[in-house]
Amino acid sequence: MQVLNALKSDKNDVIKFCKNTFSWGDYISEIWDYWYLEGNLFVVRENNSPVALSHASISKKYRQVWIEGIRVNPNFRRKGYASSLIQHSEKQAIKNDCLSSFMLIETNNKNSLELSKKLGYVIKETWNFFSLLPEKPISSQIEFINTNTKIFDLMRSLELFYVDSWRWYPLNDQQLSRLVENQQIIYSNDNNEYSVAVITSSTHFAKTMIVTLLFGNDLGIKKLLDYSKHLANTQNFKRIQVLTKLNKINNSQVIIKKLSFYLMWKKLE
Ligand SMILES: CC(C)(COP(=O)(O)OP(=O)(O)OC[C@H]1O[C@@H](n2cnc3c(N)ncnc32)[C@H](O)[C@@H]1OP(=O)(O)O)[C@@H](O)C(=O)NCCC(=O)NCCS
Known about the structure:
The chain is α+β, with helices and mostly antiparallel strands. It folds into two domains: about 5-100, Gcn5-related N-acetyltransferase (GNAT) (Aminopeptidase, 3-Layer(aba) Sandwich); about 130-265, Aminopeptidase (3-Layer(aba) Sandwich). The chain is built from seven helices and 14 strands. The chain has helices at about 10-15, 30-40, 80-95, 110-120, 150-155, 175-180, 220-235; strands at about 5, 40-45, 50-60, 65-70, 100-105, 120-130, 145, 160-165, 165-170, 185-190, 195-200, 210-215, 240-245, 255-265. The strands form two sheets. A twelve-stranded mixed β-sheet has the order 1-2-3-4-5-14-6-13-12-11-10-7. A two-stranded antiparallel ribbon has the order 8-9. Strand 2 and strand 3 form a beta hairpin. The longest helix is centred in the C-terminal third of the chain and has 17 residues, at about 220-235.
């Protein structure tokens, strides 16, 4: 068995076994073309047809690989295909001087969790996904983070991740400065406590705003989410996806908890 680069024409065969992967369906049909263009989209074939796939998003800037979209046709499971795909991605990442490999696994996906642990991954953090809808203007008092503020220094001192297109990246100095410059980090200071969020838009899913809610108190979080809803409305986003390590969000407006995920990590060597 060999791991090969995917062909553009593999899409139809792949989609056939990636429709009802999870209780909510699957997203491979929406994302295949982007991943194909990005490269490092891998498949395993049986009788010339793809029966397993995964994508590796290799970031030289962060020296990390983000492994995503691991799918094995149900008729070909427990043959080591997923393991081979992951190990192949790791090898490509090492060739590109990456130091870490990451993937995201739904907390109730026992099979995938077993798989990743067997390959040496550990749970780095647990994240929650909430969904929210854009809304007409709501007045909310938030501020943009500036490089010469106390909160900027505080953020530099914490080991934080932010989410860009459902990939988790460390908020290092370089990224912090870039996001600050683009006014993508919002905050509020209520009762001497900071609440902070990072706003990005998905490059893969249409009209989708992603809010990484880093920390805060109820009042501050309400302000940040009200602002996000307002911004999403004025910029014609259809949905807001909130990703946070917080378990609960007390918000008077409708916010629905969808899923929880483990951020899995492995040191590459
Ligand atoms: C999870 C999934 C990718 C595993 O693919 P696979 O090719 O069958 O996995 P492998 O054969 O490489 O399995 C390697 C190890 O993972 C674990 N594992 C995989 N499937 C398992 C299962 N159904 N039950 C328990 N352990 C399992 C085992 O430790 C296994 O080793 P073993 O067979 O020697 O016991 C596959 O079941 C799948 O496509 N599931 C739906 C999509 C999905 O969940 N993708 C991952 C998203 S993060």
